[in-house]
Amino acid sequence: MRRFRVVLLAVVVALPLAGCGVPAQDEPHPVALPRRPLNVTASPTASEQAGEVAQVLCLTRDDRLVETVRRSGAALGPQRQLDLLVLGPTPAEQSQGLATSLAATGLRVTVPAPGTTAVVEISDPEEGGGRIDEALAYGQIVCTLTARPDIGAVTFVRDGRPLQVPDGDGAVTGRPLTAADYRSRIGPP
């Protein structure tokens, strides 16, 4: 009886695997992947069709971080991405309610070799350029840079000295930060 159960169990397990409908192949074959992010359902605009490389920027809407994708003809370096982040949203992004918390902020990024932790130098804030929500501003930087495949975390310095910054929950820390530290602030697109 036990042997019958073992054979029956083997047949029950093997039958679905054998008949899954995917034929075995001897050679690999190319797969055409979509060029648009999978979570975007709208048809591409002319500017999206012109570029081939997706660049993630984390902008803001209300008190939330919102990832937006811009396309360009070539991959941008981390400094150029931060420069675009400080410049803020395009007119099309503004019409969707997107903004930046980093206007008039001086940022310089380096990624010391052989690491994946970016170091962002933040200049002293300009007179009258105070932020209402610093966690949101730092979150924009961290989420933008860690969306890149070559950067895993971000630390901050001012005048070469380590800087304590707020995470997504407002806790102040000097440790390297990732997008997961701002998960509570990331909103829907």
From TrEMBL:
Keyword Signal annotated: yes
Keyword annotations from UniProtKB, A to Z: Signal
Pfam family, one: Germane
Leader sequence segment: 1-24
InterPro entries assigned to the protein according to its UniProt record, in alphabetical order: GerMN
Lipid metabolism as UniProt keyword: no
Residue ranges constituting the GerMN domain according to the UniProt record: 78-167
Domain of life where this protein originates: Bacteria
UniProt protein name: GerMN domain-containing protein
